[in-house]
């Protein structure tokens, strides 16, 4: 029997007062300015810096940025997103590492749109939700309850049917079980049912468009950098059947996930495990970069 979550009434969904109580106990743990913007803004020398909005909680502190390379007619359009869940560090830093070190290799080959940190408040607080206790990665829907998600949807809307690839960079952490899933159960007035955090990298494909060869190409590339998560004793990863080595599938559009915001042929969500005793932070970032490169290379080879 797990202890009740300290906010709300067990069995009852949170009301506005509960959500405000949750918000009040959140504290700043790191700086978006120092860790993200300090790496984004210098990229304006080589990329077009697109300010596509700001968070209403503090617009000056939380501007939203995307970066474009020099788009050329006839090249495939690819979207890379990170930090939809702000606490998932390698998604943000991996996207930035790719921009600083690897994106140049795709100049004249791919039209890139990279959004390194979709949820900057979540990055500072190290939390899955936004200030209103809303999960951005279940909110990529019409009339989104998440301003982070709504801003990204507006950014990509003019090109929604033009994207050929979208890779969304995430992590699965130990705090998913110690904090975020218990908080979710409490918020929704449900019982918390513990699960097992997989030790290693895995992918979430689209059950409506699985693209098995594409997923395999990414797993094969990442496996050279870090270990791939094995299935649990039921053959699952986080409750979903493993459909091939290191891959599970979700109906991404139906669930309002970021990976479903375009009509791209090739879509996937990466999941890195930063708490593994067998991986370092640098290795986690490198795994994200390897995944991006493998995705782009597969797309180019299969145009």
Overall geometry: globular
Order of helices and strands: HHEEEHEHHEHEHEEEEH
Radius of gyration: 18 Å
Question: According to CATH, what is the class?
Answer: Alpha Beta
Task: Quickly count the helices.
Answer: 8
The CATH superfamily is Zn peptidases
* Average pLDDT number: 97
How many strands, which pairing sense, and closed or not: the largest β-sheet? Answer: 8 strands, mixed
Can you tell me the CATH topology?
Aminopeptidase
How do the strands line up in the largest sheet?
Answer: 1-2-4-3-5-10-6-9
Beta fraction? 15-25%
List unreliable stretches of 5+ residues: none
What's the CATH architecture?
3-Layer(aba) Sandwich
User: Given the helix and strand composition, which structural class is it?
Assistant: alpha/beta
N-end to C-end Cα span:
53 Å
């Amino acid at each position: 029997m797990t202890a009740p979550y300290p906010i709300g009434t067990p069995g009852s969904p949170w009301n506005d007062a509960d959500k405000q109580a949750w918000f009040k106990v959140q504290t700043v743990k790191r700086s978006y300015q120092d860790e993200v913007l300090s790496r984004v803004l210098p990229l304006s020398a080589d990329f077009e810096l697109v300010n596509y909005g700001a968070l209403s909680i503090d617009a000056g502190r939380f501007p939203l940025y995307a970066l474009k390379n020099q788009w050329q007619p006839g090249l495939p359009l690819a979207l890379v997103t990170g930090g939809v869940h702000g606490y998932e560090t390698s998604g943000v830093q991996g996207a930035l590492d790719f921009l600083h070190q690897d994106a140049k290799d795709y100049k004249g080959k791919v039209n890139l749109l990279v959004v390194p940190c979709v949820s900057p408040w979540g990055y500072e607080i190290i939390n899955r939700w936004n200030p209103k206790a809303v999960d951005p990665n279940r909110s990529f829907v019409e009339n989104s309850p998440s301003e982070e998600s709504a801003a990204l949807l507006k950014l990509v809307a003019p090109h929604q049917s033009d994207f050929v690839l979208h890779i969304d960079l995430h992590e699965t952490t130990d705090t998913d079980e110690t904090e975020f899933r218990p908080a979710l159960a409490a918020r929704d007035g449900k019982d918390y049912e513990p699960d097992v955090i997989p030790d290693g990298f895995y992918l979430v494909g689209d059950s409506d468009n699985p693209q098995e060869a594409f997923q395999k190409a990414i797993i094969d590339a990442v496996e050279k950098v870090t270990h791939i998560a094995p299935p649990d004793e039921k053959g699952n990863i986080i409750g979903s059947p493993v459909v091939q080595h290191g891959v599970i599938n979700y109906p991404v559009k139906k669930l309002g996930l970021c990976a479903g915001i375009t009509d791209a042929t090739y879509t996937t969500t990466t999941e890195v495990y930063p708490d593994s005793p067998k991986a370092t932070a640098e290795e986690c970032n490198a795994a994200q970069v390897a995944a991006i490169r493998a995705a782009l290379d597969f797309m180019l080879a299969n145009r």
